[in-house]
Amino acid sequence: MATYLAEHPEFLVAASETLHQRQQIAQQQAYVQLALQYRAELLSSSSPSVGPNEAKAAVVMFFDYQCSWCSKMAPVVENLIKANPDTRFIFKEFPIFSSRWPVSGLAARVGEQVWLTQGGAKYLDWHNALYATGKVEGALTEHDVYTLAQHYLTPTQLTAVKEAQSSGAVHDALLTNQALAQHMDFSGTPAFVVMPQTQNGDVKRVTVIPGSTTQDMLQMAIQKAKG
């Protein structure tokens, strides 16, 4: 047997590829079951969102403003929003890099405050504008965040953001997102869940992507979720 394998290494390569494919399928199935289990939390109306609340399908994105791959996905998501006005897009502020770059947490708190006080359209403007700076992986500064935030929040609302580090609705929202990401077994950003919004949504219509992807892949997932 050892001699055969030495003479035919392609057999080992094929076996390894088959095993990897099976592991990927099993992981995707596990993710889908988690998405169904935490459906209510993923589709919560408390999270920033744009698009019809009663849309057939929803795209849920976990992200960090200092994540370089999230920054690359931002224009992709923006294009998808424009191409799918009948789909709900839900944004889960998940500042996973905040311990390394505290400005990540600040930006997330501002985002939640914009959502709470200004609604989805203004939130999306803020979200895209911050990523448009191109400042990721520690390049973003508090000055950058506060300068941009002044276009969306009043001085009183900005003060509320500064006080939201340890309590309040904004603080609680970020803790909720962190717990949900842990439940979903997401250890990094970005991460996407595309699913039907109906309670009896077919398991085959749910797609979970724990990482960056392409616009075409997300579009296919949206079409699948719509049924």
Automatic annotation (TrEMBL):
Keywords: Disulfide bond, Isomerase, Oxidoreductase, Redox-active center, Signal
Record InterPro entries: Thioredoxin-like_fold, Thioredoxin-like_sf
Superkingdom of origin organism: Bacteria
Thioredoxin-like fold domain segment(s): 47-194
One function term, GO molecular function aspect: isomerase activity
Matching CDD domains: DsbA_Com1_like
Protein family membership: Belongs to the thioredoxin family. DsbA subfamily.
PANTHER family with a match to the protein in the record: DISULFIDE BOND FORMATION PROTEIN D (PTHR13887:SF14), GLUTATHIONE S-TRANSFERASE KAPPA (PTHR13887)
Name the UniProt record assigns to this protein: Thiol-disulfide isomerase
